[in-house]
Write a structure and sequence with these properties.
- The structure is a single chain.
- By secondary structure, the chain is an alpha+beta fold.
- Helices cover about 25% and strands about 15% of the residues.
- It is built from 9 helices and 15 strands.
- A 6-stranded antiparallel β-sheet has the order 2-1-15-14-13-12, sandwiched between helices. It has a 3-stranded antiparallel β-sheet with strand order 3-9-6. Strands 4-5 form a two-stranded antiparallel ribbon.
- The longest helix has 15 residues.
- The mean pLDDT is about 95.
- InterPro entries: Beta-lactam-related, Beta-lactam/transpept-like, Diverse_Enzym_Activities.
- Keywords: Hydrolase.
- GO terms for molecular function: hydrolase activity.
């Protein structure tokens, strides 16, 4: 059995430099401070976090755990990939027949109808090339123009939040949380049910998870769907809210992806959808469908080229490595030290 003690010690020695209680030092918690005012504030709930924690599974079996693996903590943009899973589930149920179809054709009247937005497809939203423009839940897409994120090799064209000239949908890649929230809103209109309820019922509970799971929206993000007042949830915790989940549940989800959507003989997600999530975007080959890829080793040089990652601010990584039948979850790791952690795990796997 591989010895992961060195990797675990490295992670525990390099906790992200955020306070454990956001109320203790709000200026050092989260990523909203980098936004132009008045958007540089939290709009949804946040809560204290635990220590650096993680889980490693090989061949479907847990072989290591550290920190507080059962504690449900915020996981920031790892939640984006959970939206991709909900889109895949909608596809399997016939609610989203064709990812290449413009969203406006299926869901008129929710923000995709104008001349620029009406050609945007589900695939554009999933690969972050939509160039959607507008205001979602009170926030304009321009707040996220020129966003700089780790693992994006493209330099920004201007200052964060400085409006830039939009390109045709599908022709420009940009990491944009407002557009992700617009995707979440579209999925809510597809399901006509709260997305957290669907995710827990269709994914987490069948995996044996869900303890402490929450997926919360902004305080003012309530919309009417089918005559019901429902909260639309964000695909991250950039402005608060988002997914709180345990490391063990994240590892369960990673295992489901590694296994192509099957769990205990039951198909929970379509295999072809999970395979498509791992296909490189034509204009951003480091990215699939709301997931990060390592095809050329640029993300993590020591991880296998088949590896793919769910990544969230604050040092959250779910690493799926088909080459070694491994799922690795680490949380609250200082991102500057993530290559050292990945290298140590990769060495142990080899």
């Amino acid at each position: 059995m591989p010895d992961f003690s060195e990797a675990i010690a490295h992670a525990q020695a390099h906790e992200v430099p955020w306070p454990r209680d956001p109320a203790a030092d709000p200026d050092r918690w989260g990523v909203h401070q980098a936004d132009p005012p008045p958007w540089n504030r939290l709009r949804g709930p946040v809560h204290p976090r635990g220590p650096v924690s993680g889980v490693i599974r090989i061949g479907g079996r847990e072989v290591a755990a550290w920190g507080e693996p059962d504690r449900a903590d915020l996981t920031y943009s790892v939640a984006k990939t959970y939206l991709a899973l909900l889109a895949g589930l909608a596809h399997a149920r016939g609610l989203l027949p064709d990812p290449q179809q413009p969203i406006a054709q299926l869901l008129p009247g929710i923000g995709f109808d104008d001349a620029h937005n009406r050609t945007i497809t589900w695939a554009h939203m999933l690969e972050q090339t939509s160039e959607w423009q507008g205001t979602c839940l009170g926030m304009p897409d321009t707040v996220e123009h020129n966003r700089r994120v780790s693992h994006d090799p493209k330099p920004p064209q201007g200052a964060k939040g400085e409006p830039r000239r939009l390109q045709a949908p599908g022709s420009y890649w940009e990491y944009n949380d407002v557009r992700i929230n617009q995707l979440s809103l579209a999925l809510l209109h597809l399901y006509r049910r709260p997305l957290p309820e669907v995710f827990e019922e269709a994914v987490l509970r069948p995996l044996g998870g869900g303890e402490g799971f929450r997926w919360e929206g902004y305080d003012d993000a309530w919309v009417e769907v089918g005559g019901l007042r429902v909260q639309s949830v964000p695909g991250g915790s950039h402005w608060g809210g988002g997914v709180s989940i345990s490391a063990r549940d994240q590892a369960r989800i990673g295992q489901l992806l590694l296994d192509g959507g099957m769990h205990a003989g039951q198909r929970l997600l379509p295999a072809e959808w999970i395979a498509r999530m791992q296909q490189p975007c034509a204009i951003a080959p480091f990215y699939g469908w709301l997931a990060w890829l390592n095809r050329d080793g640029a993300m993590f040089a020591d991880a296998s080229r088949e590896s793919w990652f769910l990544v969230g601010a604050g040092g959250h990584y779910t690493w799926i490595d088909p080459a070694h039948q491994a799922v690795v979850v680490v949380r609250w790791l200082d991102p500057a030290h993530s290559p050292g952690f990945v290298s140590r795990v990769a060495r142990a796997l080899r």
